[in-house]
Amino acid sequence: MAEMEKRKAMPIFPFLKYRSITLPPMPPILKDVDHFMESLRNFNSRESDVILCSPMKSGSHWLHEIVSMLLHQTTEYNKHGVLLDCNFECQPDWDKLEQLNNPRFFHTHLPMEYLPRKHVENEYKIIYLNRNPKDRAVSLYLFLQGKEGVPVMTWNEFFENFVVIDTIYGGWFTFTKEFENAISEKRGNILPVTFEKLKIATIPTILEIASFLGILVDDNFIKDIADKCSFDNLKKNKIDGTTSIHPEGRATLWRKGIIGDWENWFTVAQNEKFDQMYQREMKGCDVNFVYNSPKD
Fold it and tell me: Which residue ranges does the record assign to the Sulfotransferase domain (predicted)?
């Protein structure tokens, strides 16, 4: 019997340089990165549009499902497609988005300066999701390993080349500072949400999101969303679009979904080095993240 042909997966490495940032090599970006980025900036945003902005591996798929349920008043999974369907960086045809009915819900990992001009200037709704940078770094490392095109790296190698020197989408520090400064200066219509807050205070956070979106909800609906969007239920039921970037078609999106796993990976020296870098980079930026789960 002839050997089965190896599955063709979409490569996500090496990243493509654009100005001072690097981007994953999505087909629409590879075709003409300058044209693509200008099309994104000129995108015809509507007042009813909502954009979810987050660094990679901050809980984007989790919050995407929650917001989709709120916007469409349903607790059915994936009724309006997986996150990749609404991700700006994956869009092959901007004109096709004009055919979508309101409310349109989009997602991006890009920093604020690259968002659609119209959306930012007119102060349309943005949900800004973030996660403590240590857990986020570990999650990104484990997510990238084994994906098509990604070189095999130890955690130590990844730490030095992707955490200490971070250019993916401009880097976590740049992304965070841009949004935090915009919030403190009251520029734009931005709701900040953290992975940790959503994990620790799920129902109050979902209620806060519903209020921001101007959606009236009852207690039972919110509880149903919280239950359907628990980590275990999402891992069992939500479509995992990352199968397209794994050579064996494996689903690798959902791992632990916990706070504090970084302690199993960061050495004492790495933790001290990162803390020093954080203090230097985030000086003057008033934001605090939760790094450990609350004790019972």
Answer: 48-285
Task: State the catalytic residue, choosing from 61, 64, 107, 109.
Answer: 109
Residues spanned by the domain of 140: 16-281
DSSP state of 244: G
Measured CA distances, 123 to 40, 46, 118 (Å):
17, 11, 8
Q: CATH number of the domain that 244 lies in?
A: 3.40.50.300
109 is an active site residue: yes
pLDDT in tens, the chain (296 residues): 333 345 566 777 889 999 999 999 998 999 999 999 999 999 999 999 999 999 999 999 899 999 999 999 999 886 555 666 789 998 999 999 999 999 999 999 999 999 999 999 999 999 999 999 999 999 999 988 877 788 899 999 999 999 999 999 999 999 999 999 999 999 999 999 999 999 999 999 999 999 999 999 999 999 999 999 998 888 887 666 555 554 544 555 656 788 999 999 999 999 999 999 999 999 989 899 999 988 64
Q: Cα separation of 52 and 64, whole Å?
A: 8
Helix (H, G, I), strand (E, B) or coil at 165: coil
Q: How many domains is the chain partitioned into structurally?
A: 1
Query: How would you write 55-117 as a 3-class SS string?
Result: CCCCCHHHHHHHHHHHHHCCCCCCCCCCHHHHEHHHCCCHHHHHHCCCCCEEEECCCHHHCCH
- Rounded Cα distance between 167 and 181, Å, is 20
Return the structure tokens found at 21. 């940032």
Quick check: is 151 in a domain? yes
Nearest CA-CA partner of 255 in 140, 124, 111 = 140
